[in-house]
């Protein structure tokens, strides 16, 4: 069995420590049985620190992808761990296909196997085939873009029975811009006619659209809490989203 996938057969749980700079990985030892009487399981812990190649000790996000790789988001880069060594992805100032920022806040994998990386300065889509990132950034002049750059949470909506194959829907929570529903059209043919007509004169036509859900004091049902911060997100089987910010609960359905 390849070492890249061996980690998948081990039950992994990770402990985050905000004060001490290390991450612990417990390896589960099966409970021994004697004369039919099960014993309580025991746990041993292996420490993985910056001495082992982790880019930084404060881990904000942990994710295991479909291939078994473990991903760790830190304040100083994105780490991919195969059980033996780390590969670190960072922002490169002159490379637009690198991470938009090294401060990683959240990680999510879509059904196509791409990783969506939230940072303190923008959303990034990682293509495992090319190992390149595509950036989605807030632009005050673009009403079809993200409402904020500091990403706090990401969740893919379930595929709908009658939905087109070439459409991916993600719910994006931000710290100060509210909640975003990002609709990514994987092929040009999936763009709605109105969108194609509206953007036909643009030199670079975006292949995505964003619906924003933000707090408006005069609208009760828009309540996302005064800071417009979305900390947690939930998506039901119909693809509708619900988010629980610090001070209130917001539900949206279409």
Question: Could you explain the architecture of this structure?
Answer:
Strand 14 and strand 15 form a beta hairpin. The protein has helices at 3-6, 193-198; strands spanning 23-29, 33-34, 37-38, 42-48, 59-64, 70-74, 77-81, 86-89, 104-109, 115-119, 122-127, 132-136, 151-156, 167-174, 179-185, 208-213, 233-235, 241-243, 250-252. With 254 residues, it is mainly beta. It has a four-stranded antiparallel β-sheet with strand order 5-6-7-8, with no helix packed on it. Strands 9-10-11-12 form a four-stranded antiparallel β-sheet, with no helix packed on it. The N and C termini lie far apart (46 Å). It contains two helices and 19 strands.
The overall average pLDDT, rounded, is: 76
Helix vs. strand class: mainly beta
What is the total tally of β strands? Answer: 19
- In DSSP terms (H or I, runs of 4 or more residues), the helix count works out at 2
- H/E element sequence: HEEEEEEEEEEEEEEEHEEEE
- Please give the alpha-carbon distance between the first and last residues: 46 Å
Tell me the helix content.
under 10%
Q: Kindly estimate the percentage of residues that lie in beta strands according to DSSP.
A: 35-45%
Poorly predicted runs? 1-33, 225-239, 241-254
Shape: globular
Strand ordering within the main sheet: 5-6-7-8
Major sheet description: 4 strands, antiparallel
* Radius of gyration, taken over Cα atoms and rounded to an integer in Å: 21 Å
